[in-house]
Design brief:
This protein is mainly alpha-helical. The protein has a single domain, classed as Growth Hormone, Chain: A. It contains 18 helices and no strands. Helix 1 packs parallel to helix 8 and helix 3 packs parallel to helix 6. The protein is globular. It starts with a helix and ends in a 7-residue tail after the last helix. The mean pLDDT is about 85.
Length: about 425
Amino acid sequence: MDMNIKKKREQRLYWLIARVFLPFALGYFLSYLYRTVNAVIGPNLVDELSIGAGGLGLLTSAYFIAFAAAQLPLGFFLDSRGPRRTVAILLLVAAAGSVVFSLGQGLWGLVMGRALIGLGVAACLMAAFKAMGEWFPLEKLPMANGFIMASGGLGAITATAPTQYLVVEIGWRNGFLILALATLFVSMTIWLFVPEKSRDKPTENITGQIRDLRKIYGKLVFWRLAPITALSQGTFLAIQTLWAGPWLRDIAKLTPDGVSITLLFGAIGFVFGNVFIGVTTVWLAKKNIEPITVVGTGMMFFIIAQFVVIIEWTSAPNILWFIFGMLGSIGVLSFSVLSKEFDGQLIGRATTGMNLLIFVAAFSIQWAIGEVINLWPTAENGGYDAAGYRYAFAVALVLQFLALFWMAFAKRIKRF
């Protein structure tokens, strides 16, 4: 009997992996590939279209602001319509945005394409988290979410050396046309193969939606996590998806191939970090160490890693960027904490509410870094001044330190 139960559980797990995990993992793979690809093709865009640091920051961060703008309505659709329908339809928008980007002839055409991509992949991670929460056992959520994040890390890996090779062989415009076709394929896969839980037709009006948002934003645990999660993840995304490449070129003095290899190490670190943190958190929970404690500890080490970047330690950039990528993955645990704090009808809105803050922060920080760098003159070879990186990165670091301090002591405050 016990053997039969074990066999059924194994079969159930394989079914979940094949029909739920893998399709959403493919979606998040594409989302992260789109998100990070500008760190490699940025120099091509600058050379071809004569874009300055501020323009490059705006262009790349357009993904984030469109992504952020979609989060609150997405929370409602994920809870009422389900992750399968929501993400499959939006991926069609991402495919269209990829085509627009590939055809763009100026800054604003590229901004429009990048914004459509951001809107189109806006549901990929939150839909995956929602689906994992609906289908996987609660105790397995940190691990399942960690592996979902790892699939995004594989997208980041693909956006480094493989993308550099592809750009050299066929050009970045043709590369985005290939991405459009891949996005259509993933959309169809999710629509046709992912199961959907039965749902009641949504009867909630706008007043009810606002009331539910007040429940979410009225919880102290949300606001303990929100500042440090938004600022740390926003900074990580701003640097990883754009400014890491120029920093490695201008400060570490790497060649384009060297930059892409170092970014590859960072992406591998991101994958390793997500898997390691997910598995470790499940193990620590058995020893009564809560995920929120792991979040705080991980954020502290991530701040230390950023400090090492600011002081321009370039002796071993591959190691530095591996550690940076590994520690930058710690923010995924915040979503596991939220999944335990809110009931099933509110998980989608709670996680997208947090994601909204993360991507507003990513947009603001990524653009602001470019504008700060612009305060110093550009070198004759097109490189940026080291002081610009130092000051821009340092401001983001100080904000994270203050947010970590708030997280550590906010629990002493009475609930709202």
